[in-house]
Structures are given as C-alpha cells and as structure tokens.
What does this fold into?
Amino acid sequence: MEKYIPDMYKLNIFNINYELLKEKGIKCLLFDLDNTIIPLCSIDPSDEAKELINKLKKDFTVIVFSNSPRIRLEKFKTYLDIDYISSAHKPNTKKLIKLLSDLKYSESEVAMIGDQMLTDVLVGNRIGITTVLVTPFSKFEAPGTKINRIREHFIMKKCSDHNLFFKGRYYE
It folds into this structure.
C-alpha cells in the first residue's frame, strides 16, 4: 500500500507549500495537466494557474508530465510557456527516468504533482521522487480515469483501515 501514499496531500496546486519543496532541495516540478492544473474539459488555464506557473518558473524547472496526447499539450506549452512530456504512460517509469537523465536531475530534486494515486503518485514513488497528490478539479473524468477512481477508492479505504492515508485529511 505504501507505493500509493503521497509525500504531500493538498486540496489543489494553489495550496502546496512550494517554499517547503524548495527547502527540501526540489528543483523541478512535474505537473499532471487534466484535473490538476485545469479541469479535464478546459482548453486553456485560468489566470490564477498562469500566475502560479509563472511564479514557480522563477525557482523551479516546471514541466507538464501527462498521459494526454501531444496535440492537447502543445496548446499549454504556448499558454504557460513551459515544456511538456505527452503520452507519458504513467505509471510506467520509462519516460520519467529518461526525463530525469536528460535534465540531469537526481530523484531527490524532482516532485510529481497530480490528482491520481494510480498514475501520478505511483510513477513518482516507483522511482523515489517526491509525490504530491491534489484533489481533482472536477468530477468529470475520462473513461479510463473513471476505472482508476474505482480502484483508487478501494486503495484509499484499505490505506485508511491501516492508518496510512485518509481522503480529505491534507498534510505536508
């Protein structure tokens, strides 16, 4: 069960203590896109999200690391002026390991921020980077994500039964 437990759990990306991540030596932030930075059906980020990303770029390398296809992410590269990795196939670690190698970051210098235990948290925990779980922006989900949410519900229940994780009990 520990492989599904995030290092931090926050309501959303705006509630994360980025200063604490910086103090821990984090230099690179990998963000999931859908239901993390924006709701699934959105085509552009909110002004608040743009402002946050621009602020973070002063202290961190910021990259969108998503299972979404390239055609969806190219728009966000323009809107947010950040790089992206598309079709990441999370929780598979292959693209994440290659990215760390290409950027020359160690595992201790990277954080993965996303809304799913079964993709975002699991991929990060598999290679030992800091993981941050946020509550999804909306209840609308892609079909594959709906299946993951059912599985995630059972994982969360099992984790709470063992006092490992409690949905809605945020922590740093």
In short: The first helix runs from residue 18 to 23. The chain has one domain: 2-161. The chain has a mean pLDDT of 90.
